[in-house]
Amino acid sequence: MPVEMKHIWKSYGEQKVLADFSLTIKEGEKVCLMGASGIGKTTVLSILAGLVRPDAGEVTGIKGKKLSMVFQEDRLIEWADAFENVALVLEQKKSQALWDFLRGEFDAVGLQDYEGKPVAQLSGGMKRRVALVRAVCARGEFLLLDEPFTGLDQGTKEQVAGYLNSRTAKNTVVMVAHDIQDAECLGARIVLCKK
Amino acid sequence: MDNICTGLERKKKWVVYQRKLVAVIVLIVIWQLLSMWVDRDIFLPSVPDTFRALVMLTRTGEFYRSVGTSFLRIAAGFVLAVGAGILFAVIAELHEQIGEILQLFMQLVKSIPVASFVILVLLWVRSARLSTVISFLTVLPVVFTNVRGGIRQADKKLLEMAEVFRIGVWKKVRAIYLPAIRPAFVTACSVGLGFCFKSGIAAEVIGLPPNSIGGELYRAKLYLMTPELFAWTIVIVAVSVLFEKLVMWVIRVKGA
Which of 2.60.120.460, 1.10.10.10, 1.10.3720.10, 3.90.190.20 would CATH assign to domain B42-255? Predict the structure, then answer.
């Protein structure tokens, strides 16, 4: 069942962000929202995530779907380490097997020298990858990625894109990006947001 | 590197202890000089007389009974207030209308003078329970206000993250709420501990329950035994400080 955003209107005070915005996302499709800053791309993701209520219009097909998200900011538990941060969103109980599995995931995004450290001590790029692994491991059928490659160098970006492609082949993904290459990395349909 | 850090920390701690020790000595010297200037034990006893009275007190079984009983009564009030304060703060945050009622109640409790409470509570409970009720009522609004504030300080963005990932209540409490509440809770305990001993003992002085520090204070005042009065005050301060250290240690160990 596709997710549909129909004639969405949203303002923050006097500032109109979305005006009659519509979008259809087919199941398993990868969509990349592009456009100038402040055009409302993050608001679209927030509406899909159920964090922001539109002033008018409706969203159908998303209710009951399991969501995962990489936020614009990493939104990690700063005092906890990378393992704890990912384990927090999982249903499995903590075990050595889970830790070994997560170690494999962190290896796959090229994360090193992170064990035993609270994420507050990790660099911006490392935190970003922890947030990505968290979103992927949560196994949401609907994945929302808000500028997922922020703070990553070209090499790491390619590695992380490969990781995302391999783990989310069957998932529906809606991504916000500024760089057209980011959309191409995931083979996503580009949706240009305009005023 | 670790050894250097530990060495530096140890040196810093030692400097702090030294400063505290100097402060205590200076205050004792000022006290002694003042008592020599006043030259009347009944108004301001000398340091040696007070410590002599303290030593005499500690040689009686009654002293330990009074200290133990008062401590247990006041500590019970404190523990109950901490539990109830946290519970009420959570309820207040869960339900707006109940929150308003609780907020108003706490404001009322905070602004009513302890003496009024003591007299009122004496009509309701036996004098032996008085200090427990009074320390409870003194600490309750402090814990409630601080914990409620802590809950409100919880990171909204992390709460949104928890909502998207459908993180369970207990995980959310442990990972997001507790770290937000902790600093406010520690402050509440520290402030509340000071308040509960002051008000608890004051209640005992008015209610005169058997085997109590307040009762002994009253007796010392009645017979103008000022050195004993000072000795009991030192005991109250010591018990209050020790209890505060104990509670802070528990919070540190359990909260780590």
Answer: 1.10.3720.10
